[in-house]
UniProtKB/TrEMBL annotation:
Region (Disordered): 329-351, 512-535
Source species: Bosea lupini
Domain of life: Bacteria
Official protein name in the record: Gamma-glutamyltranspeptidase / glutathione hydrolase
Family affiliation: Belongs to the gamma-glutamyltransferase family.
Keyword annotations of the record: Hydrolase, Transferase, Zymogen
GO molecular function annotation: hydrolase activity; transferase activity
Comp. bias regions, Basic and acidic residues: 525-535
Length: 535
């Protein structure tokens, strides 16, 4: 009645994903007796089919989860290192790696999905991939957000004839140049690839014929990724990083994941009684934006910190100095992206997807994965239906940068899937896409939900902002004009977008759990085709 999506709750399981067909794929696995760790592969592979501009088995990502049988939080990192074959000396600026074969990093997603299933799942890989195989073979009607993405990217890719022919053959129908709402997209080559993986396992990619096909095509396109690089892909189980916020323990993956920026921002804000302020008023937003920009600067200046440095960054003494800077009212000017200003306001923020799943057994997981930019590198491998990532675009290749990405080194990744606990029980899985804005927009949603008490769906729908390099702040124009003017007077280079909603502030999906009743509540972002589904 008020134009909002209703609150969706269940006792039997919950899947929140960026596309309804992917959410339904996960719910189907739960209804067939699978658990969270089986459903991940079903949701992720279905997303590979229905949002190929965001998702691919050839991407990379990470997962944070509550393992009910072990009563603990765990992290699985499936972000492979910078390949040993990476010709760093060829590049001086990030833009040189936006598209093409040289931008492709080793694919980690498939290895991550399979490791979760191996460690804790109970269904076969064939069962898990079945929904995605059916979607790819039978086809699906393209939804609204897909129309936008395909039709935005098609003319850009046409500027690269070396990439466009294979891309168009895979995704456009009968020589067309665009797609329409409801148009059926069939991907028989991807279906065949997924069937082979289901039968042969992940080594079909990392040590087998599929890997040979990919690396041979990249070599022909001038790329340097090798079978040796693929064979070194190995997901890693890591210990989570955590910080207290309003009586909760918020957990994120440790570095080289850059989620510590999110925790640092929460640590700064924990000393401000935001809930007593006017929601979306000048004081509330000024404090949050200032804290976000300070934390981004710390992350950029201390990229991939060692444990000792990380402990110092999150220490009471260091955080108190940042709180004092928030309180002093002086304008804050600084980067939010990489070591040097990289992206002007409004540049596409990267194409990532995040989904959250809970099952009736008490397991809860948040996965964030990506292929980098829209359609990644733009390289579609003939005969496979696979679009390859461009994650080396997120490497730091700038000469003189203290964070320069060396061959074989860890690849810092601007992702931050989160898992919150309270009194030792899981209460929230929350994640979002958005490149370097991920650690910014999750803070804003957390404040809406925890400090102001908004239901999870309403907290995700609340207007958000993306902070860019310098002083620029892009806000959704649902923030009152008077508040925007007041924030400008305080030194924020603030401007409102025209549409009221923008993907530049993320596309969040979340599942909460009530420890007392076991009630699971899902929430999805209307900024995308997000939906929740239950078994």
């Amino acid at each position: 009645m008020d134009g909002r999506r209703p609150t969706m709750s269940s006792l039997h399981g919950m899947v929140a994903a960026a596309h309804p067909l992917a959410a339904q794929a996960g719910a189907r696995i739960l209804s067939q007796g699978g658990n969270v760790f089986d459903a991940v592969g079903a949701v992720a592979s279905a997303l590979n089919v229905v949002e190929p501009f965001m998702s691919s088995l050839a991407g990379m990502g990470s997962a944070i989860m509550w393992v009910a049988a072990e009563k603990r939080v765990r992290v699985l990192d499936f972000v492979p290192p910078v390949p040993e074959s990476f010709p760093l000396e060829r590049f001086t600026q990030r833009s040189e790696l936006e598209r093409g074969a040289l931008a492709v990093a080793p694919p980690g997603n498939l290895a991550g999905w399979c490791e979760l299933n191996r460690a804790y799942g109970r269904l076969s890989l064939e069962q898990i991939l079945a929904p995605a195989i059916a979607l790819a073979q039978d086809g699906f009607p393209i939804a609204e957000f897909g129309v936008i993405e395909f039709n935005e990217q098609a003319p850009l890719l046409r500027e690269r004839p070396d990439l466009y022919e294979n891309w168009a053959r895979n995704y456009l129908r009968d020589g067309g140049t665009s797609v329409t709402l409801g148009q059926i997209l069939r991907q028989p080559e991807l279906a065949a690839t997924l069937r082979d993986i289901a039968a042969k396992g992940p080594d079909h990619l990392y040590r087998g014929a599929l890997g040979e096909t990919i690396t041979s095509h990249l070599k022909a396109q001038g790329g340097t990724l090798t079978m040796s690089d693929l064979a070194k892909v190995a997901p890693r189980w890591r210990e989570p990083l955590a910080a207290d916020y309003r009586g909760r323990q918020v957990h994120v993956p440790p570095p080289a994941c850059e989620g510590f920026q999110f925790l640092l921002t929460l640590r700064i804000l924990d000393d401000f009684d935001l809930g007593k302020l006017e929601r979306n008023g000048t004081e509330h937003l000024d404090i949050v934006y200032r804290a976000i920009r300070l934390a981004a600067g710390v992350r950029i200046n201390n990229n991939n910190p060692n444990p000792e440095k990380l402990a110092e960054i999150l220490s009471d003494a260091f955080v108190e100095r940042l709180r004092a800077r928030v309180r002093d009212g002086k304008p804050i000017d600084g980067p939010t992206e990489q070591w040097m200003p990289q992206a002007p306001a409004g540049e596409d923020p990267g194409h990532t997807t995040s989904f959250s799943i809970a099952d009736r057994e008490g397991n809860l997981i948040c996965v964030t994965q990506s292929i980098g930019s829209p359609f990644g590198s733009g390289v579609v491998v003939p005969g496979t239906g696979i679009t390859l990532n461009n994650f080396l675009y997120w490497a730091d290749v700038q000469p003189g940068s203290p964070n320069r990405s060396l061959p074989g080194s860890e690849l810092p990744m601007c992702m931050s899937p989160t898992l919150s606990t309270k009194d030792g029980a899981p209460v929230l899985a929350l994640g979002t896409p958005g490149s370097y804005g991920i650690m910014q927009t999750q803070v804003q949603a957390m404040v809406q939900h925890v400090d102001f008490g908004l239901p999870l769906q309403h907290a995700i729908e609340a207007p958000r902002a993306r902070l860019w390099d310098g002083r620029e702040v892009e806000v959704e124009n649902r923030i009152p004009a008077g508040t925007i003017a007041a924030l400008a007077e305080r030194g924020h280079g603030i401007f409102a977008n025209e549409g009221g909603w923008t993907m530049r502030v993320g596309g969040m999906q979340a599942v909460s759990r009530d420890p007392a009743s076991g009630r699971l509540t899902g929430a999805c972002d209307p900024r995308r085709d997000g939906y929740v589904a239950t078994p």
